Each structure stands twice: as structure tokens, then as C-alpha cells.
Amino acid sequence: MGALAGLKASQISSLINMGKKFQQAGPPPETVSVTHAQLQPWEGTMTTVGSVAAARGVSVSNDAPGVVTRILFESGQIVRAGQTLVVLEASAEHAQLASARARRKLAELTASRSRTLVHNDVIAPAQLDSDEAQLKTATTDEAALQAVIDRKVVRAPFSGRLGIRAINLGQYLSPGTPIAMLEAIDTVFVDFTLPQQRLADARVGLPVRIAVDAQQSGKAPSIEGVITAVDPQVDQATRTIKLRASVPNHEEKLRPGMFVTVAVVLPAQAPVIAIPATALLHASFGDTVFVVEDKADPKGGPPLKVARQQFVRPGEARGDFVSIVEGLSAGQTVVSAGAFKLRNGSTLVINDDVKLDPQIAPKVQNR
Question: What is the b/e burial string over 192-208, where b = at least 16 CB atoms within 10 angstroms of the residue's CB?
Fold first, then answer.
């Protein structure tokens, strides 16, 4: 019994001494990757949201009443200016037109004979005047009937893409019945607003970048445009200025009614301190980064790398980088990978075998 008690006491004493050694040595170092805070020239931008509007859009409708006899388009079809879309029944008008043409030809012959007879002093000039008036009346009647027939044909007012067809063959159309939406596809407008404080920065001719959600995530590049109009009035309710940008849309990536992100590119560039977004830690008490510093080894060995938690104030984010407005200086070394497992004063082992490659404009390839 005495021997067993002595053995147990020896084991417990050994464990207590080992725990004290571990406590003095501290936690084991954490393996992380590091990077340097860079001073990068970023172009000034004003980011806001906007909506896409058609540069030219109209609801195609008929001008004259009638029954649909021919439909010469399909839903979603691209049409050119002047292309025939719908033909309405006009058999009665065609018959009247044929009669008017016959009267006009007879009036032409009568007026031609009267000119010859008046030249030979066979009839009075008053008769020639009457025949000329009848010719003009017949010509006008023919033109009027031709205009009525032309109104029975609905044509595209400009080139663009048609929407869904809203009529059917044999349907009676009252004047102004919607046939289909027609919108130009080569160029669209993007309407957006900016605070009144940016009125001096917003002007016609500034370039803009348009991006939808999928494009913001790097799956597609943004679309370039230019500001074409600035509303002279400030909205009294929101104190914002309305602007309009013209954006080419040859690939039809933008559709009227879409919600987009608009970045107005300012001509001036400003240097900012940028770090990879992976180095920034977000918490309820504030945003922090871990700065790598040297600390003397108490055992007399080479200096140790330790992490110091530093509060920062982040600014704008672009691509894989985020700008730091306050709390960090250019050239400081920060933890870029593995910061989530650190605490203030943690010892570090730096391993940059797997190097991150952050980019301002990353492009994600579809796999």
C-alpha cells in the first residue's frame, strides 16, 4: 500500500510539473500566411444603384379599326424600321381605290384633250379650268383612299426587339389596341440618383460602370457607359439628383426594368492603404486586423513573431481588396490567412507556401 501511494504521488507530481512548464511556455504557435499593407492608387468612384430604361420603347398599336388578316411577326423577334407587322382587312377600301384611280385616269385624259382644244381656240378656257379642277379632285380622292389603306398596315416605327404578341388572327382591333411592345436593343438608359453633396462631381461626360449581381461577383465584366443628362432640379423629399447614363447594349445583357449597380468614375485618383479582404475580421465591437510584430525570446533565441490585434476603420472594397481609412500604415505586415484562429499576443509560424493572389478585378472562370 505504501509503495502504491508513493508511485501515484510521483506521477501526480510529474504531471503538475509538466503543466507548469506548459503554462510557462504558453500555447503552441499558429501557422498563418502574411502580407504587407500596400499603398495603391485607386480611382475615385461614386457607387449607387439604378434601374435600366429603354432608350426607345413603344407599345405598337393600330391607327385604324379593322379585322386582322395577316400577322407577319413572332414574339421576341428582332425587326427593322418600316417592317410590316400586321395587315388589317381593307377589301372595301381597295375597291374604292380602284374606282378612284379610274376616275383620275379619265380626268387626266379629259384635261389633256381640253388643253389641246384650248390651244386651238376650240373651247373656252373656263372648260379647261373645270377639267383641271376635276383632275385635282380625282387625284386627291385617290391619295386619301391610299392613306386609309396605308393605315390598315401596322409597321415598326424603328428597329428593335418585339415583346409578346397580344393579338390573334381574325381579331377585331379598335383604334389604339396594343399589338406588342417594341424596344430598341442597341442602347439603353440607366437612371440613378446621387446625394446633393456630390452635385459638383456629377457632370455630363463622366464614364460609368454598370454591373448586375452576377457581374459584381466576378462572373462577367462590367459594362461601360457615359453620363448623358443631369436633372437640373434636386428632389425635395430625398435631396438627391437624378442622372441618366447611356450604355451600349449590343449583347442584350441589360433589359428595361433591371436593378443594377452604378459606379461613376471620377477623373482624380487617390492613394489608399489596401489589404486583402481575408485579413479583415468583422465583429460586433469593431473591425480588426492582426499585425505581425517581433518579440524577444525569453530563452535568448531568435525573435519570435507575435500577432497584435489592431482596430481599423475600413473603407471601400474593390475586388479582393479593402481599403483602410484609419488604424494601419503602409508597409505593415498583417495576417492574410488564418487570422480567425488567433488572439492578441499569439505566437506565429509564417508559412507562405500557398500564396494568395488578391486582385482588384478578379475573374472567376466557370467550371
Answer: bbbeeeeeeebeeebeb
Closest CA to 87 of 103, 66, 108: 66
Do 77 and 198 contact (CB within 8 A), yes or no?
Answer: no
- The answer to whether 223 and 214 have CB atoms below 8 angstroms apart is no
pLDDT in tens, 203-242: 899 999 998 864 444 445 688 999 999 998 998 898 999 9
pLDDT digits (tens, 9 = 90+) for 15-53: 777 766 655 555 677 888 888 888 888 877 788 899 999
> Looking at the 3D structure of the chain, how many domains does it have?
2
Output the DSSP codes for 45-61: EEEEEEEEEESSEEEEE
Structural domain span for residue 191 = 50-56+187-269
C-alpha span between 317 and 218 (Å, rounded): 14
Of the residues 114, 149, 182, the one at which a domain ends: 182
Neighbours of 224 (CB within 10 A): 13
* Residue labelled with grid coordinates 502574411: 34
CA distances from 217 to 169, 256, 283, 361 (A): 46, 21, 24, 10
Q: Grid coordinates in use for 334?
A: 498583417
Q: Is residue 38 part of a domain?
A: no
Q: Are residues 66 and 145 in the same domain?
A: yes
Which residues in the chain come in under a pLDDT of 50? 214-219, 367
